[in-house]
Every structure is written in structure tokens, then in C-alpha cells.
């Protein structure tokens, strides 16, 4: 329990520090710089900072839910996930330059968060920190299944996550955040035993790419190719097209917003045919005279 209290205290401290820095940078930096850089960096610090619990599944999943709930409520829509940033680019909500800056900052934030967490563990405030320091020197891969099954698992996780995010993208944060947090927690519980259920390339790169058990190419296929494929599939399933690549809807036929009114007979007029030629004309009916 003491170790749990220390981890929760660390998590809350990171949240508080990031919130202060976020508010200060929001006032001092130009709005564009803040949106595209600072919030992504801070989100990565929080995303990786408390990673790894050393506790039971119930505690880990509860903390996982709380972590993503706080992220969704407080971090102005920052994703800390390359697949989300690329999705915004593909639906033309973000330019190429802005997307490139976000991707760069996500990797910077990933490295900064890794350094912060490693430094925190070096204090060895709990027995778990000591074990974590030893494991960091010789960690094992999070892929506990075949390569193709791992790609499939990460792809399905990404597909479900992005479909839910697209479905509730216009909801207010207090409704959207719990739904996304519950989705991420459920996916982590279901797919965690197979691949760790990262479906976030930067997070996976930081946590598991340096571990033994798989080569770099296999890590890239599972933790990059899988989530990117899932994101593209979610766009196609949700709206039938990828606006940045093509405008044609591949899955759904467009529906007109307007209904064509059906013709109604005008009182006092009758239809007559013109000597079998197929043409018709309207003449006043005898009742109208």
C-alpha cells in the first residue's frame, strides 16, 4: 500500500505541475505554439510518467481509467498519439506543417517523460522502483503472441478507439472523457495479455522497443503498422472515405438533404395524349367550366 501511495502522489504531482505549466504557457506563448507544441509535450509527460504499476490488475485498470479521464478533461484535446494527429491531417483538420510539429513534439515529450520516470525510479522510494531499475537493464518484449496476431490485436484496438473517438468527437469533454477512458481501459484489459494494448506508437516506442525478445522490424510492424492500419480502417468505416486522399465515398451512397416533392394533380386539369405520339398536354376538365 505504501508503494501505491507513493505512485499516486507522483502521478498527482505530475498532473499538478503539468497543469501549472500549461496555464502559464497558454498565457505567454502564441496560441498556435501552445496548441501544437506545449500541450502535446505535457500530455506525453503525463502519459508515460506514471506508466507501470507493479500492482494487481484491478488497481492498474482503475488507475488507467483515472489517468485517461484526467487527460480527457484537462488537456485541451491534446492526443499524445501519432495516429490521432495523422487522422486529423487526413480529415483536413490539420495542415502538414502543424501535423509534423505535433509528431516531433510527441517524440520529444516521450523522451522527456522517459528521463523523468527513470530519474524518479532512481530514488528507489519503494521496492518496486528497485525492481524496475533492475528490469530496465534487461526487460522483455510485451509481445506474447505471434507477429501477425500482434499486428491484428493492435490494429483492432486502434480501430475501436478511433471509432469511439470519431463518434463522440463533438460531445462536450465531461461526457466524451469518461467514454474514451472506459474504452481505453476495456481494451487494455482485453488485449493487454497479448501485446500490452498500447495502440500508441510513441508510448510503445518508449516502453518496449528497447526490450529483448523481438527485433526492431517486428516492433514497428506490431506497434506502428497495426495502429495506423486500424486508424485508416476506422475512417473508412465511419465516413466511407479519407478526405485528404480522395473525395469519393467508397462505402456509402450519398443521401440528398432535400426531398423531391411528388407531383400532385391540379384541380380542373386533365391529361390527354397527342394521337399516340406519347406527348401529353393538360386541358381544362368539363367540371371547371
Oligomeric grouping of the chains: single chain
How are helices and strands ordered from N to C? HHHHHHHHHHEE
Average the pLDDT over all residues and give the rounded result. 77
Give Rg in angstroms.
27 Å
Strand order of the largest sheet: 1-2
Strand content: under 5%
> Which bin fits the share of residues in helices?
55-70%
Which ranges are low-confidence, i.e. pLDDT below 50, for 5 or more consecutive residues?
271-279
Biggest β-sheet, characterized? 2 strands, antiparallel
Structural class: mainly alpha
Task: Assign an overall shape.
Answer: globular
Distance between the ends: 97 Å
User: How many distinct beta strands?
Assistant: 2
Number of helices: 10
Detailed description of the structure:
The protein has 289 residues and is mainly alpha-helical. 64% of the residues lie in helices and 3% in strands. The protein contains ten helices and two strands. A hairpin with a 6-residue loop joins strand 1 (269-273) and strand 2. Helix 7 (147-167) packs antiparallel against helix 8 (173-195) and helix 9 packs antiparallel against helix 10. It is globular. It starts with a helix and ends in a 5-residue tail after the last strand. Residues 271-279 have low confidence and may be disordered.
